[in-house]
Amino acid sequence: MGHDRIFLDHAASTPLAGCARDAVVAALETPGNPSSAHAEGRLAKGLLEDARGRVADVLGCRPREIVFTGSGTAAAQLGLRGAARARRAASSRIVISGVEHPCVHEAADDLVHEGFEVVRVAPATDGHVDADSFLDAVGDDAAIAALVLANHETGVVNPVSTVAAALRAQGIPLLCDACLGPGRLPVGIADVGADLVVFSGHKAGGPRGIGALYVRRRTRVLPLSNGGLQEERLVPGTENVAGAAGFAASLEFAIRHTAERAKRYEALLALLFAGLGDVQPWSRVGEGARTVPGMATLELPGVEGEAAMINLDLEGVAVSTGSACALGASTPGPSLQAMGWSPERVARTLRISIGEGNDETQMTRAGDVLSDIVRRLRSLARRESNPRPSP
Fold first, then answer.
1. Which of 30, 98, 268, 284 is deepest in the core (most CB within 10 A)?
2. pTM here?
3. How many other C-beta atoms can be found within 10 angstroms of the C-beta atom of residue 2?
4. What is the pLDDT of residues 210-244, one digit of tens each?
5. Residues 294-333: pLDDT tens digits?
6. Which CATH topology does 18-256 take?
7. Total Cβ atoms within 10 A of residue 205
């Protein structure tokens, strides 16, 4: 890819931070298996536990409450399935929001086949999930509840800490997908408040193939498979030491620069918006709701989002039409449809997410390019809907 391309899809994946790259390279030079008793094994174990301690320190929890997984999806699956199965005797009800990541919806659907009942709480028209409505749906007898910190399609932020405090008083565990938070929103355990919190390395400047699940002490979770004693017996198999080291480095850096990044990302997004002033009408999904800094999903009447995305890519600008993990699904934009949007309206959306490496010059160019493409596609659509009569 050329160096003049503009990457505006940080919600799908972020560029690898320099500190993470250095940590990965250093860890890869250690040949030992963390489960081996010899010197090399002890060195690998030391690197792994150092990474765990650094993650715990920056999140404000105990090292043993951090479980490394192969991805954010794996962490979410472990948290939801593992906690639901552990609490089966107490309840067979699972409550999740309608704007969860697809992996949470799919895990919940699978649990239905095991005899669980799944209740989905619809969001408000602006995309956020009302705390009182969610708590009413949970009641006092749910096995587990799940509420995403920030939706992957819209960037709308939910009142997780309020819900978490209420559910903890009832003894009902809450799973929170916080993958979009690091470097943009406060994601310390005290800030989020949930009993199970999901993180993903590549969403915060870390390497791909590594994630983490925070498991509050005394929260019971059953493993999804057997085979080893690793990660508190919850994730059997040899640990990804290099991935954990890179994840720890990037998470530290992102969290410690949250306020600065959030302010800069919002300023860059505003600059891009300024370049769209002459292509009305357009609107921001979730207008009026709290959103992740630097992330916006736009509705562009008269324009197919996929066509706009392809044309932007050809012009050197990378954006998305929604959650990367939802691409190829038979039902596009599941969160937008949960908000009551029709498939036709969903098809008119484009997701832009800003991050490290973006600057003012790029935003000005991206705004100009997007404006030109919107005008061109609308003109083409008008000609197709009003063809000239044949002579």
1. 268
2. 0.94
3. 5
4. 999 999 999 999 998 887 778 888 888 889 999 99
5. 999 999 999 999 999 999 999 999 999 864 555 444 345 7
6. Aspartate Aminotransferase; domain 2 (3.40.640)
7. 27
Q: Is the pLDDT of residue 78 over 50?
A: yes
Residue type, 137: A
The pLDDT value given to residue 329: 44
| Residues 11 and 152: beta-carbon distance below 8 Å | yes
Q: What is the pLDDT of residue 43?
A: 95
328 Cβ contact partners less than 8 Å away, ≥ 6 residues apart: none
Check: CB of residue 243 under 8 Å from CB of residue 201. yes
The residues, any chain, with a CB within 8 Å of residue 155's CB and separated by 6 or more, are: 11, 180, 286, 291, 292, 295, 296, 297, 353
CA pseudo-torsion sign 129, 335, 378, 307 = positive
Residue 231 DSSP code: G
What is the average pLDDT across 145-168? 97
Cα–Cα distance between 126 and 160 in angstroms, integer?
16
DSSP β-ladder status, 211-215 and 66-69: antiparallel
How many other C-beta atoms are found inside a 10 Å radius of the C-beta of residue 91? 17
**Residue 292 and residue 294: Cα distance in Å, rounded?**
6
Which sequence spans correspond to the domains of the chain? Answer: 6-13+258-385, 18-256
Identity of residue 163? V
How many residues appear in the chain? 391
Report the catalytic residues. 325
Question: In whole angstroms, what separates CA 316 from the centre of its chain?
Answer: 24
Find the distance separating the first CA and the last CA of the chain, reported in whole Å. 47
Q: Out of 2.40.30.10, 2.10.70.10, 3.90.1150.10, 3.30.1330.30, select the CATH number for domain 6-13+258-385.
A: 3.90.1150.10
Closest CA to 207 of 177, 245, 239, 181: 245
